[in-house]
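Aim 2, interim progress: modelling of the pyridoxal-5'-phosphate-bound target.
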Amino acid sequence: MNDKRQVEGTELDALFSPFFLGAYGENDEIFEKLILEFFRDHVYWRRNLHPQDTPPIPIQVLHSEGYLAFVDKMKTELHRLTADLKNSAPFFNPRYIGHMASDLLLPGLIAHLVSTLYNPNNVTEEAAPVTVRLELAAGRQLAAMMGFNTDPGQHPCAWGHLTSGGTVANYEGLWNLRAAKYYPLALRSVLPELSLDIEKLSRGRLSQDAPEWAWFNLDVDTVIRLREAVAEALQALPTEQRQALTQRIESGRVEHLGQVDFHAAWPALKPPVVLVPLTAHYSWKKAMKLMGFGSAQLVSVPVTDHMRMDPAALDRILGELHEQQRPVLAVVGVLGTTEYGTIDPIDDIVALRQKWRRQGLDFGIHVDAAWGGYMAALFRQPGGAMRHHDELKDQFRYFPSSDVYQAFAAIRHADTVTVDPHKLGYLPFGVGAFIARNREITALLGESAAYVFDEAGDNSDTDTLLRNLGRYILEGSKPGSMAAATYVTHRVFPLDHRHFGKLTEVTIHSTEYLFDRLQETADRLRGKARLVVPFEPDTNLICIAVNPEGNRSVPVMNRFCQGIYEQLRVTPDRAPQTREFFGSRTNVFHDALSPAARQTLVERLGLDPDSFRSGGKAEEGASDYVFLLRHTLMNPWLFSASEGLNYLDRYCRYLEKLILEQLPDA
Ligand SMILES: *Cc1c(COP(=O)(O)O)cnc(C)c1O
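Predicted structure of the complex, ligand included:
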């Protein structure tokens, strides 16, 4: 069975041959040829803009002293830079199995480098006549991969755009959901003057004198419907009255008043909380600080023994919040946690929203799929339909568990999603993406209110409006080259299981293979050290804990693992050539584990439970975390073999050797 998978892996190797520059620069010729070709093409474009003009840089200056001195200086500094860059982390190499990075897909890399020559600025179409459309197209490609409708003829229609990374896309999730949740209260005093039937518009969820709680607990689609009805009613009014009412709505919004004055105006409404799993990325804490909600309002939901958000705990917390009439702005599910690669039960979060919505507690759902988002390609047919679980299971040994499958199938019910092309999209850093299920939410964000369609030439459809990107997103000026890179990559590798999904497929094969090999390594080490994979991988990330046989102390074990990790890391003063393999590290904290999971972990590692405790300090012979080696298996060449051993076999051998060398009596 393993052999079969390895053969399959080798076939995939062949398929991937032209996709990357390669560990050895194998594809240097095609890369060089294309870069040169498109560079020359760019120069001709410059020359042909107004060829009759005299070139502003005179030819004779090229031989002047000052010119030559400048070239010297430039070369010297570039030389220094590239010399220093040799100490970079060698992401491109199959020996690199550390952080979430790998070799870059050639179409994206070339599109990025070539488009940079044109320097488009995607803040608005005027500064990027070509690449803004590519950005919106890339957004639709990603939205479709997540299962959202992207046909404007159907409602709701999703949209997506690119950000500098997952962190900003997460901020944007909160920014969008805040706009939607807080908006209805700003309408409250104006609605009677517009003679709108609020009960009908909210499908019975609201009446004019409903408490603040009810106004806050509306779903995104209802809020959007309200806004549209208000816009229409305003349109019908004489200009002066329309402007006065618009002004009143806008000045009652949280975006205008700020948290403090808004809540002072509605004292019966408690400030909202945001729920994330205990394993959430730290950008969520930053987002809460930045938005002024405060990190104290970020509630961590406990996780299961699989390091996934615990739906029972979520249900209980929602119950408590409902009891306290404490509003929930959003529940965040993570699709591929940064530390363990685990998948939160998005389907359960959606089901719990249904349940609590009926009790009057409603919230936005944001899926943080910065890491795992691109894996959705593996779940899609070329036409966009979701593949059957059985068909997927046939391809793998363990993947995908039915929990993982259900989570991917449920993304389409989320309101907003983060996904990072610069992670599993194999694109250069500087590109994340934000997706909203209902693109009309942008009407709540626009820097000038879009109540009046005939104002400032805004009498156009959403498609056209969205090309003024900067009005609806957090960032301003931004590289159109990233849009070009993302779009071209998705064109060359459509986001389905036959194309882009092949990359995900091989990384999962690698993970399953490594998982099995690590069990064998653990067997070989028996009696000398205990090697444990504490959480079975949901995706393509594996963590490993190692404890010398006989050691019972967690701090001693952590030091031991740190010693191993020292051999697997890059530092600014250590040439990567001096390393055999590259890994990363993480901790699993005492407080992140349930008592049962804690007990299992210390038992498997042969540790004394007393040395693993909350707030434990090394001086007291205890620790509040267990050190883990962390491996991200993105590189598609891990099955590539020299002398009969592939990189994963070789890593296991190397790890075994490192462990044996580190043992106290070695
Ligand atoms: C990486 C990551 C982020 C942050 O994304 P950046 O692109 O590093 O800003 C957020 N959430 C998760 C789950 C991640 O893995």
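Residues 183-265 form one domain. The chain has 22 helices and 13 strands.
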